[in-house]
Amino acid sequence: MRSIKRIVLAAVVATMAFSMAGCKLIQKTPEAIQNTVLAKVGSEKITLGDVDAELKADIDYLKETYGDDFESKIDDELKAKLKEVRQQVLNALVEEKILYLEAEKKGLVPTQEELDKEVAERTAEIQEAWGGEEAFAQAKEYYGYTDETFKAFLEDQVVIQKVKDEMFKDINITDDQINKYYEEHKDEFVNYGQADSRHLLFKTEEEAKAASDKIKSGETTFDALFKEYEGNKAKSTATDATEEDKALPISEDLGTVSHNQQNFDPLFLEGLKPLKEGEVSEPVKSSFGYHIIEATNVTETTPKEFNDELKAQIKTTLENEEKKSIYETQLDSLEKEYKVKTYENRL
């Protein structure tokens, strides 16, 4: 019996040793990992290396911060974000590959002379946008491009644009479509009203209501409270502010605020919109607390004139909508034609 146990134990040890050796043998090198195929478009392959090349600046940052084996060190949230970005890049590369193959099939690839001309024009535009030759060179280096690879990238973009132009060549937006769109979206085509706005901000509804009642009764004025609270914002936001300081009412001059002002609390804007010249609001609740708002130099929201400029704006909107619809439909068809396969589980 003892000899049988020894034979079984030896077999188990041998099996474990073989398994461990096998794990080491199949462990991928960094180079092999970069060669992992993430998608196939016909006979063309897109690898993890292709994706990461598009994310060079981000990958370099992760390597500098966490080391070459950063993927084993970053937290789950950052891993999820990296996977999401890689997925977006992979999708873009698949689309580009499909469109390039379609350009070749339809004979839309320009001659090298034509490509050189268009690439030179685009390069000049991009260089100007980046602020000159030196800044442009730094940008290319940062994003991992050499002069040759950037030229190749632009050549691809020129070819891809030829395919899109072919897709969209029959789009024709008529005056009837423009007029119909205008009638259906009249409320969007307005010159938004605005007002010079000051406000008092309170932490609680009770404080705001008490101040509002005093203003309405004539016991005090908006101006008087505005001056009284003027220094409170600095106190409440100071690094050494106490809980009492943080609870202080504050006053602020917000300058000219449009009725559709970006980055403003929508509830605040709803409180501002109905105010007439020199009017002070009732307490208005927002995510910041309770406001009493004063409006001066008020202008009303008025309809935009249905002129050539607005018609051109609507035409562009309709063209973009039709382009989006055509592109999505044709891309879906081309994915089937070129037998696209993606392997997101390998990301």
Spell out the key features of this protein.
347 residues; alpha+beta; Triger factor/SurA peptide-binding fold; Chitinase A, domain 3; 3 domains; four-stranded antiparallel β-sheet; three-stranded antiparallel β-sheet; 15 helices; disordered N terminus
Fold topology:
Layout: H1 2-26, H2 30-34, E1 37-41, E2 44-47, H3 48-54, H4 56-66, H5 76-106, H6 112-130, H7 133-142, H8 147-168, H9 175-184, E3 190-191, E4 194-202, H10 205-217, H11 222-228, H12 232-237, H13 243-246, E5 250-258, H14 266-272, E6 284-286, E7 289-299, E8 302-303, H15 308-337, E9 341-342
Antiparallel strand pairs: 1-2, 1-9, 3-8, 4-5, 4-7, 6-7
Helix pairs in contact: 5-8, 6-7, 6-8, 9-15
Order of helices and strands: HHEEHHHHHHHEEHHHHEHEEEHE
The CATH architecture assignment of the largest domain turns out to be Orthogonal Bundle
Globally, the shape reads extended
Rounded radius of gyration (Å): 32 Å
Strand content: 5-15%
**Overall number of domains:** 3
- Class by alpha and beta content: alpha+beta
The CATH C-level name of the largest domain is Mainly Alpha
CATH topology name of the largest domain, in short, is Triger factor/SurA peptide-binding fold
**Major sheet size, sense and barrel closure:** 4 strands, antiparallel
Distance between the termini: 51 Å
User: Count the helices. How many?
Assistant: 15
Extended strand count: 9
